């Protein structure tokens, strides 16, 4: 009597890649959603600016109709809640979007972990627990439209300025927030406000994260120009991390009391063409 062959279950050659393929698709959807929001918000900002300078009823009527279309398109995408959900997915650790780990590693490498907890403000926090494991960081997460009870709902532009060092912060994180501000002058204003919210000390730091194309593929902003703007406000670049062709750039800036008053005016107060190209964007930061 011949031996009975034990049947083995053949594993599908595609089953192992199913999760990866789903993750890839989800990533593309996430990225396209965020990009669509940014495009619509830029259009909204431009139309709003035109409306402010409209001189005739017909111009105002046409502008309002265009604005209504943009607002409807934003609503069809799911509104700001959908943008934040997409941003949360993009920030998840499995996508390498957890910028908090980069910041923590930098701080540890600089010997910033001390007996006294560092007071931190996290602008645009999508999750309340980004720094929960770091007990030496006393983090205050805020967001314009909070998605969690542990995140303070607050407009950073309206946050009261500190009247004492006790109300100031040792560290402020501004990760993928500045690019969401719809006007170059308001971006500059936000950076100025961040400087004012930091404790006046050379140990105070700003962690700035931007989509890399904002810096390396903009007609109006280059890394040298960004450094000039930051120095004019009162920041010194101490660390950076980005790579050619990458999606995101990370910069760590040290608070500096000495400002170059000459740089704070003139060319830095208006958009100046730095380079040109058909596929370049118009992202800019100017000082108000």
Automatic annotation (TrEMBL):
Entry's Gene Ontology cellular component terms? nucleolus
Kindly list the GO molecular function terms attached to this UniProt entry: rRNA (adenine) methyltransferase activity
The annotated region (Disordered) lies at: 1-27
- Protein name, please? 25S rRNA adenine-N(1) methyltransferase
Question: Which family, according to the similarity comment?
Answer: Belongs to the BMT2 family.
Q: What is its main location?
A: nucleus
List residues binding S-adenosyl-L-methionine: 124, 143
Q: Which organism is it from?
A: Cryptococcus deneoformans (strain JEC21 / ATCC MYA-565)
């Amino acid at each position: 009597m011949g031996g009975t062959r034990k049947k083995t279950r053949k594993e599908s050659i595609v089953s192992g890649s199913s999760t990866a393929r789903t993750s890839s698709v989800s990533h593309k959807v996430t990225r396209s959603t965020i990009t669509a929001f940014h495009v619509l918000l830029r259009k909204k900002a431009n139309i709003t600016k035109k409306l402010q300078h409209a001189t005739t009823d017909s111009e105002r009527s046409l502008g309002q109709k265009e604005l209504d279309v943009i607002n409807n398109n934003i609503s069809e995408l799911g509104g700001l809640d959908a943008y934040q959900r997409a941003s949360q997915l993009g920030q998840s650790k499995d996508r390498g979007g957890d910028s908090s780990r980069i910041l923590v590693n930098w701080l540890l490498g600089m010997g910033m972990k001390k007996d006294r907890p560092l007071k931190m403000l996290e602008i645009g926090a999508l999750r309340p627990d980004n720094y929960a494991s770091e007990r030496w960081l006393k983090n205050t997460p805020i967001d314009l439209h909070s998605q969690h009870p542990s995140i303070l709902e607050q407009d950073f532009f309206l946050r009261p300025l500190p009247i004492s060092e006790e109300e100031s912060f040792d560290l402020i994180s501004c990760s993928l927030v500045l690019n969401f501000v719809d006007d170059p002058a308001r971006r500059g204003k936000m950076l100025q406000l961040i400087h004012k919210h930091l404790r006046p000390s050379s140990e105070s730091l700003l962690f700035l994260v931007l989509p890399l194309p904002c810096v390396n593929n903009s007609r109006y902003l280059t890394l040298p120009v960004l450094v000039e703007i930051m120095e004019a406000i009162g920041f010194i670049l101490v660390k950076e991390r980005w790579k050619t062709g990458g999606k995101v750039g990370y910069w760590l800036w040290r608070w500096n009391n000495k400002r170059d008053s000459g740089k704070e005016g003139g060319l830095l107060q208006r958009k100046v063409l730095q380079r040109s190209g058909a596929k370049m964007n118009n992202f800019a930061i100017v000082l108000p």
